[in-house]
Amino acid sequence: MPRCPQMCRGMNNNKRESLMIKLPPLIAVVCAGLMLGACSKPAEEVAKQAVVEEKKPEFQTYSAEEFFKTTSVFGSSINADSTAVLVSSDETGIFNAYKVPLDGSAPVQLTNSTVESVFVVGWFPKDDRLLYSADKGGDELDHLYVREVSGEIKDLTPGEGLKAYFVGWHQDDQQFFVATNERDPKFFDVYRYQVSDYSRELIYQNDGGYSVESISPNGRYIALSKTNTNADSNLYLADLNAEEVLTELITEHEGEVQHSAYTFSRDSKQLIYSTDEFGEFRQAWAYDLENKTKAVNFAADWDVSFTYFSKDGRYQVTGINADAQTKIEILDLANQQKLSLPNMPAGDLRGVNFSRDGAKLVFYINSDTSPSNLYVHQLGSDSVKRLTDTGNPNILEENLVAGEVVRFKSFDGLEIPGILYKPKQAETQKVPALVWIHGGPGGQSRKGYWALIQHLVNNGYAIFKINNRGSSGYGKTFYHLDDKKHGDHDLKDVVYNKYYLQSLDWVDKDRIGVIGGSYGGYLTMAAMAFTDEFKVGVNIFGVTNWVRTLESIPPYWEAFRKSLYDELGDPSTDKERLHSISPVFFGHKVKSPVLVVQGKNDPRVLKIESDDMVEAIRAGGTYVDYLVFDDEGHGFSKKANRIEASNKYLSFLQAHL
Questions:
Q1: What's the 3-state SS for 134-179?
Q2: Angle of CA points 520, 522, 526, to nearest 5°
Q3: d(CA 466, CA 491)
Q4: 409, 412, 417, 423 alpha-carbon torsion, rounded to 10°
Q5: Is the dihedral of CA 573, 576, 582, 587 positive or negative?
Q6: Which partner from 226, 333, 470, 640 sits 20 to 30 angstroms from 397, CA to CA?
């Protein structure tokens, strides 16, 4: 199973401060020296210098406030009459639902939350009602809500302590399916709701510990998965039309093979699923529900990240995880040819979706130096219309930096990939650098715009977003190289990343720090406690006590428990090793400054983890700063908090790196 449901949630989400940014100390000293030196120079030379000083700098630096004046937008559901797209936008500082007209007129705000972020699911099939999910303060106990056309909000999954998610629409447009763990906190059952009055009935009671992955458009089949080990899983089908609903294994195999469901075909005749049985990477295969035969559907030299169909069934959209960058292919099933598109703006396509009649296509374009913007294309024309303007016009794109995919050799000769950002300041001076570690543990740092990264790079910090062994996207062998070697082999990758940075002639080899969130926060603290390699560490809601973390996982992770234990260790039998790799017990060994940032309501990495880590470092006499957000969980969704955090990172780095 993918590791995303484990530790990592918010780092690659939206995936933080408030002071105007000052010049880095080195630049300030140089400027002061030039001014003092001018007093002893001939008048002609002073005049020449004055002319130089009046010239505009080759690039500008910006504050966190400026970077976060960009707007984050996602969602691509097109309404019934093909006039508008439903999106979530943080334009107000918190995510709310918006209606974006396809004619290019101004977006209309549909929800007015000031407390909890609203994450849209989609329009209703026949009218402008909409579904969205929201939790409370980042506790991840999501409920499913409907917004009526009148603006009234109804909780479709009321109750305390439950978690719910949308599964799919019935092709008759009169029903939809929702999974909740209200009956048993450990497992998700499936309910069928009526579009007319939201009445519901239980259609699948999950007593077997399966994960609910997809439901066929005709409502007959549910695709379920079950974890055997962290490298092996199976897919099952539940036929809801059978007299007795049983689960049928459809992925019998030998050895360790991962399986998961992508989607059903629109005619409900095939299940398109993922398997790594035939090589290092995940391929898309089709299972014929009637004949029970299998055939390859889509394969590439990288993982197939996703595939799905347009509502009319004519187009198939497939995403390939090509070296930390998503490449999208759209196949016209009517002629088995790639869909021909007009010239597009520069960047990567994301969030592709078709109108119900297949006549219009909406999508996002994103790049390292430009946030996602929504576009619409009328098929068969050369028209591409931009519907949003998410950038800050005060920030010139030429002042930002695109990341470069590079690789270095680690301690054992293994090539480790990552994304390197070289700041503009490095053209004239050596700059400090940061090793940035993603969450997971099996996550992946990827290309694309991230205001926080650009803020730090713009202010003079080189960043290498490492994809250490154990990262997804580079084949199953690479993915499992860190199993039960956490805090050892993956930490050595981080250290060798530092050595690589020291080999670059534009990096100050004595000013290299480490930063990361979730599992990346763990490796950050491991680097600070178990090595003396880094000048500073920034731990963003990182695990510091593996025994407690693995003993306190949320009940709704029950289906993944064995996978977690296979990878990290079982606290009942592996407590000694887990203790030995937990930084909280070695806080006295931390000798360099640390910043810890935490969400109070985090259900994955409990706040007590960070509390104890901070106390342990302070007890050892080392400087540690601590920032807690009372209204956030595992990741920061509110713009004001993201600004405050970003400013905190920068001020800490300016003071200590």
A1: ECCCCCCCCEEEEECCCCCEEECCCCCCCCEEEEEECCCCCEEEEE
A2: 115
A3: 11
A4: -50
A5: positive
A6: 640
Residue ranges of the alpha helices (H) in 508-638?
A: 519-530, 546-551, 561-568, 575-580, 607-619
Burial class from Cβ neighbours inside 10 Å (0-12, 13-18, 19+) for residue 39 reads exposed
Specify which residues 76 forms β-bridges with.
none
Structure confidence at residue 57 as a pLDDT band (50, 70, 90) = low
| CA atoms of 95 and 482, how far apart (whole Å) | 36
CA angle 148, 151, 156 (to 5 degrees): 45
Does residue 363 sit in helix, strand or coil?
strand
Instruction: Please enumerate in sequence order all residues whose Cβ is within 8 A of that of 4, keeping only pairs 6 or more positions apart, or say none.
Output: 440, 442, 443
**C-beta atoms surrounding 362 within 10 Å:** 24
Q: What are phi and psi of 167, to 5 degrees?
A: -105, -40
Tell me, letter by letter, the H, E, C secondary structure of 605-642: CCHHHHHHHHHHHHHCCCCEEEEEECCCECECCCHHHH
How far is CA 347 from each of CA 88, 304, 509, 521, rounded to the nearest angstrom? 21, 20, 33, 30
Is pLDDT of 21 > 50? no
546-592: per-residue pLDDT in tens? 999 999 888 988 888 888 898 899 999 999 999 999 999 999 999 99
| Cβ atoms of 18 and 644 closer than 8 Å | yes
Give phi and psi for 265, each to the nearest 5: -65, 160
Structure tokens at 612: 């104890």
* 404 or 42: which leads in pLDDT: 404
> Tell me: the pLDDT tens digits for 467-513?
999 999 999 999 999 999 999 999 999 999 999 999 999 999 999 99
DSSP per position, 93-128: SS-EEEEEETTSPPPEE----SSS--EEEEE-SSSS
Cβ–Cβ < 8 Å for 159, 181: no
| Residue with token string 């998965």 | 225
* pLDDT tens-digit series, residues 211-247: 999 999 999 999 999 999 999 999 999 999 998 888 9
Query: Per the structure block, which two tokens stand in for 600?
Result: 């109070």
Exposure of 615 in the CB half-sphere (CA atoms within 13 A): 7
Kindly list the strands in the beta sheet with 348-354, ordered across the sheet, starting from the edge strand earlier in the chain.
348-354, 360-367, 370-378, 384-386
> Tokens representing 147?
């917004």
How far apart (Å, rounded) are the C-alpha atoms in residues 248 and 234? 10
Read off the tokens for 255.
Answer: 């050895």
Mean local confidence (pLDDT), 62-72: 96
pLDDT in tens, 622-639: 999 999 999 999 999 999
Say which DSSP state 470 is in. T
